[in-house]
Structure formats: structure tokens, C-alpha cells
Amino acid sequence: MAGDSITAIDPTDLLGDWRLTRTLADRRTGLSGTVYGRLTLRCERDQIAWVEQGTLLWNGSRLSVSRSYRLLRAEQGWWLYFPDGRPFHAWILGQWVHHPCREDSYRGLITITAPDQWRTLWEIDGPDKAQRIITWLSRSRAFGREPESAADHRAG
Fold it and tell me: What domains, with CATH codes, occur in the chain?
């Protein structure tokens, strides 16, 4: 999986709006759902605000969902934090990261397949959860910044 990905990209290169499609599968109940929405990454002072908004289709229900994080640069690289300041995980491309949540274990993989496409994969296991969550992100041309090449052509 990691062999086909871009392994060195700074999160600031991902600023802008992204179309988000997330599939959620509960391995214990057999239920699954999909989130359709938007991820916005924007600079705020010395950090990157990560804001998701969308609609979850789950077991016949349609629910509005949102969440936010903060990406901060540290000595060892970038880290994603919850809104209350707790660390979530290191921003490491193409390598598994780990986040313990009570007795459950979250293993995640960030894969950037092209400058305008990336995904996250989470495998969650423990006494409370057995889930697989895959999020596909693609640059939203309608809302995000233009690719560098388009801006360069106009300037010249």
C-alpha cells in the first residue's frame, strides 16, 4: 500500500478544500455507512485548522456530522491534535501510526497517491470497537486553491 504513495509532502501543501468520502464498517454488527462532505485545511497562526463537515448515511438514517483537529509542527515533524489539546497521532505518510483510546487501539495510515488525492485508513480493535474506516479525499476545484501550474500560466 505504501509503495504507491508520495512519502514526503508537507501538510501546508494540502491547504484548501477537499471532497471527502468516508466508508465506515462495523465488523461486529455488520453495519456500514458512508460520509459525504468536505474537509477544509487552513492556516491559522502557527498551525493548520482541520475542519470536516458532511452527511452520514448509516442504517437508514441521514445525520449531519462534523469534527475538527489542529495540525501543529513539532521538533519531530507534524502532529494532529484534538480540539482540547490532546495529541491524536504523528503526521507520518506511508507508515502506520498508533493511537490508544481507552482499551481500544487505533492504527492509521495516511497515503497520498497524487498531489490532489489522498486517503486515510483506520483499523480499530478492542473491547468496545471493531471497525475499519477509510476516507478518500480529492481536491475540490470549486472551493480549493488552484493548482500551482494554473496560477503560473496566468502570471506569465
Answer: 14-155 (2.40.128.20)
Entry pTM = 0.83
Burial of residue 156 (number of CB atoms within 10 Å: 0-12, 13-18, 19+)? exposed
For cell 493511537, name the residue.
Answer: 99
Question: Sorting pLDDT into bands at 50, 70 and 90, what band is 3?
Answer: very low
Q: Region 36-56: what's the mean pLDDT?
A: 96
Give the length of the chain: 156
Helix (H, G, I), strand (E, B) or coil at 11: helix
Q: Within a 10 A sphere around the Cβ of 118, how many other Cβ atoms?
A: 21
The answer to whether the CB of 58 falls within 8 A of the CB of 31 is yes
Instruction: Single out the residue of 91, 112, 109 nearest to residue 5, CA to CA.
Output: 112
Predicted pLDDT at 149: 34
**Four-CA torsion 110, 112, 118, 120, nearest 10 degrees:** -10
Q: What integer pLDDT is reported at residue 4 of this predicted model?
A: 56
pLDDT tops 60 at residue 152: no
Question: Which residue carries 486515510 as its cell?
Answer: 120
* In the predicted structure, residue 105 carries a pLDDT above the cut 60: yes
